Target: Aminotransferase class III-fold pyridoxal phosphate-dependent enzyme
Amino acid sequence: MKPSQIQTVLSEHYGLDAVRQEVLGGESDHNVRIVTADGEEFLLKATKGSTEDVVLRWQTDVLAHLAERVPQVPVSRLVPARSGDSLVAYGPYVVRLLTWLPGTLFAEVPHHPPALLTELGQVAGRLTLALADLPVRDGITSHHWDVRRARDAIETGLPFVTNENDRGNVARVLSWFDRCAGEFGELPAGVVHHDINDFNVLAEPGDGGEWRLSGVLDVGDALHTIRVAEVAIAVAYAMLRKEDPLAAAVAVVAGFHSVVPLTESELAVIFPLAAARLCVNATTWTRRTAEAEDGYGRARMRHTWPAVARIVRIHPALAEAAFRAACGFSRPESPRPRADSAVVSGPLTEIDLTPASDLYDGLDWTEPHAVARATGARGFSRHLSASLLAAEPRSGAAETVQLGIRLFLPEGEPLRAPLAAKVERTGEQLVLRHQDFWSIWWGVDSPLGTGERAEPGAILGKAGADVQVQVVTAPAFVAEPPPRHVRPADVPLWTILSPDPAALLGAAPAGSARRDVHDIVSVRRSRFARSQRAYYRRPMNLVRGRGVWLYDEDGFGYLDAINNVTHVGHAEPRVSAAAARQLAKLNTNSRFVYEGIAAYAERLCATLPDPLEVAFLVCTGSEANDLALRIARQVTGRTDVLVLDGAYHGNTTAVTGISPNRYKGPGGTGAPPTTHEVVRPDRYRGPYGYDDPDAGARYAADVAAVVAGLDSPPAAFIAESLMGTAGTIMLPDGYLPAAFSAVRAAGGLCISDEVQVGVGRLGSAFWGFETHGVVPDIVTMGKPLGNGHPIAAVVTTREIADAFDTGMKYFNTFGGNPVSCAIGQTVLDIVQGDGLQEHAADVGAYFLRTLHELRERHAVVGDVRGQGLYLGIELVRDGREPATAEAMAVAEAMKDRGVIVYPTGVHDNVLKIKPPMVFDREHVTRFAETLDAVLLSLR
Ligand SMILES: Cc1ncc(COP(=O)(O)O)c(C=O)c1O
Model:
């Protein structure tokens, strides 16, 4: 209908004058939002047909019934025309006017918290209750979207689906559907809305910001059918765009059940019906868009195919168990597997496949058969334990827990039936029926055929390369076996569905004494001071690292973007081997004479320019800075020190006093009288920006001014070459040379703190100060030197070192011990031998470019900066206000998606990026994609 025709209908039949018309999408109706001069809003529906059309009259019945029965449920109401009827004939159209409901389409609500999904289920339940006794008009029997006819609907669309994966997924859903279709006649029936989809539901944020349901639209599909159709359809669309579709489904079912108690038979069909409904949606709109380009159709199915792909991975029996648990149904009695005869001859020992297992130390477990070769044993791994062999980046979908027991046996070894059995399935899995449960055998080459019987001790077949045995209690697993690995979150449900096969296999697991994350956190609380904070509100229990990846107890992998200490990669095998070799030979203190210390001191000093040639080997960066401060004060005979505002230099009493990041931060008591701050040369927030070519000189002028203002000249100026904890602050060109000159002119020493950024990280130079063309008097270094082993150092000139020798001994119990020196040597060998500095330059430049692209797309990204593999992403809101809470939320969400990054900076709003130097371009891509998704989800 044209706008002018709409205007005519409105004024003639409703006495309304539209000042605005907005055409909305719709499957068959022409839907228009109307705004009148008084600011009233309506939904106008124009449908081709006659006012006697039974479908339109039926919709009128449904709306009137709902208005009467559940006035509190926000469903649009029909507005009668002047004639009193609510259907108006206009040319070939029937026009209806409905009240306008406020809110955002459910599909466009940024995230659906469990409470909102539960409310969705409750509203669906209320509609179902209200409609239960509505008499059905003659002629209203079924339509394309009728869930009972999903197979027919899917089959008409399937020929248009060309993607083989999609076709396979639909076939699987159809097999689920077929298995439950025979039950429909037995299920409770009634009239239902039948279309609680994410374009038909509206939500609005409440006073506290939490989203509440604000409307249900479109009764066009209302039907007398199985009552469970209502909740199945709501579940279907609630699963769209969800990383954990089952959790969303559970919330909706629980809500519905709280209003309309569901029967056990209904619970069993919800998931197959919901999946079938999504397949109807996907295939129907694929067909319709193929037949005629249809933007509405594309929008309707955009998220459906990906959701179907995710949903087919969920076993319907698992979904049913989840719904039963959510609705308070009792768990079925679990049979206890036992064996009348041994499956294999000889004992089996337990092989620990969990991520913490010693088995993987020094082993590339991703190499096929590496574990089997390494154990060489006949063994078994424990049921429902996380396996590093199944490790995946953390996500709601990652399946890292082994379901059942894996057997490690020589290939070809015969396996025998533990109990009397009937073969119910052969092929990829051998499925045996026992008296009160089934056993499922993967990787067994069996001569048995379906229907055959096997007595205890009879040969089942020969072991293949990868044998796994499961026990299940539900017949649903015969038609479709369970997965070999499951999500850690589903372990409680699988415990019900799949008992431990250990007794069946004669494989007795030893007790397990490992602490879990809750235990560890609680001990940290009781045994540590609160000031020793842990990362993350919901931390993970890390049990292993390798390269750029960290792994937790559940087998979730985390891409590590912040550990610059493990410079050459987590658990680098060459470093571990060097440490183990030296630890097995000799470890003592540096007052004894041994070769390693000479070799390391020479090697370390060779990385520095003249005249930096004398080393003190210590254990931490704090200790290094503490010593540097002591040297500077003693050598100059002065006490005052200049520091950059925002800097952090360590945790001893002395260096806390030169760390504005601490003494000005929470709990800080201010600067000691001998500490003098200079302006942080921050070109994003400071007075001189990126566009000022003289920013370096201007910020350095402040150093000169502070020096000039001192009562007595300074002992030292200390600065990082790129400020780390202050928030990845890049010192502008010319800053350090001018600052050093001003300090030296006053007789002070210049200290470069390379603890964070040294050892090739900045890419263009081995040490950060070299990127500024200066040579300091004292250099301090730490974190990366030992790849996690505590090695730190102070390197200075012969002249300064000699002046420090007043006769007082300097002794460090651990600094420079033989093990540290062996590790330090190996780290330098790897950095230089593997070209990691050049790698940092290359990957870092790519990383920075990638982050700049991301910045274009997200207003919350205020600035990206850095050099080599030391980068920062500054998050802001409303211009440049620091987005501190958002930065923490991003870090938490990134962690939940398997990427570790954390806020730092003066305002804790800069995401620091300083990964192990083996971070590659593919890791950059993963990081950027995850950050992009997280920033979108938090909008
Ligand atoms: C620049 C800088 N200097 C010194 C330190 C202190 O090093 P450590 O923690 O090894 O004592 C740190 C630690 O983060 C640092 O960032």
